[in-house]
Amino acid sequence: MSTTPPIALTIAGSEASGGAGAQTDLKTFQQLGVFGCAALTCIVSMNPKANWDHRFVPVDPQVIADQIEACATVHSGIDAVKVGMLGTQPTIDAVDAALERYGFPIVVLDPVLICKGQEFSATMAVDNALRERILPRATMVTPNLFESATLAGVEEITSLEALKDAAKRIFDLGVPNVLAKAGPSLGTGTALDVFYDGSALEVLEVPAVGTERMHGAGCTLAAAVTAELAKGATPLEAAVTAKNVVSASVNPGMRGNIPFTYVWQGSYQH
Ligand code: PXL
């Protein structure tokens, strides 16, 4: 006998310590009853000797293509794909070509723009490539405040009105569903995100759990959206469930020998 759970593929970086990236995505998929597979785009090793800076090594673009080919061929019906950290232009080229080739039905883009290990000079070109090539392929995008400002082309976002405006601008770039995340950063006492699909503009709020930085919260949110879409939820339903998954995963969260808390997906109950 065999079972056929929904299947999700994450195209993301490895964060070795298990707090973010592909490791987080796979745990989130599993927690939500979705079979996960992963194509690694880069290897991140946080450096305990340099303020936990991110040592970043890109995976060879051909190897990225090979991994996606293996996933797409083994699993004939990948229900949804999450795209996380890409980081370099050759990586974007490889992922762009694979998305074109396989035509996955649902693509959730977590537009991770900055990794501490990358050269700043490289990031502008990479940001533009991400906006021009990968963003239009996304069914849904989940930018944080900084990423929303960058994608929307505004200086900074410090209010709910500005976040709503940015969500609309990002929608106008060609993404049918935008989940623009503020989390606790607008000082509302809640973890607040804005969902926009061209007609509905919803402010999604849950009680904030502190203001401390939570490693992996963004990855968990986007992975949970991906899993829920793979199961057939609507984008708004997926966003609502994903926020509940993040709330459960950050409270109480998990602590290691590092100055910020980790998410722990295992405490979420369906
Ligand atoms: O949380 C953003 C992120 C995504 N992907 C990888 C990371 C990080 C942050 O550390 O390492 C691989």
TrEMBL record:
GO terms for molecular function: ATP binding; hydroxymethylpyrimidine kinase activity; metal ion binding; phosphomethylpyrimidine kinase activity; pyridoxal kinase activity. One of its GO terms (cellular component) is cytosol. Keywords: ATP-binding, Kinase, Magnesium, Metal-binding, Nucleotide-binding, Transferase. It is an enzyme of class 2 (transferase). It catalyses: pyridoxal + ATP = pyridoxal 5'-phosphate + ADP + H(+). It holds the Pfam family Phos_pyr_kin. Its EC number is 2.7.1.35. GO terms for biological process: thiamine biosynthetic process; thiamine diphosphate biosynthetic process. Residues 16-252 form the Pyridoxamine kinase/Phosphomethylpyrimidine kinase domain. Catalyzes the phosphorylation of hydroxymethylpyrimidine phosphate (HMP-P) to HMP-PP, and of HMP to HMP-P. Belongs to the ThiD family. This is pyridoxal kinase. It comes from Actinomyces gaoshouyii. The lineage of its organism: Bacteria, Bacillati, Actinomycetota, Actinomycetes, Actinomycetales.
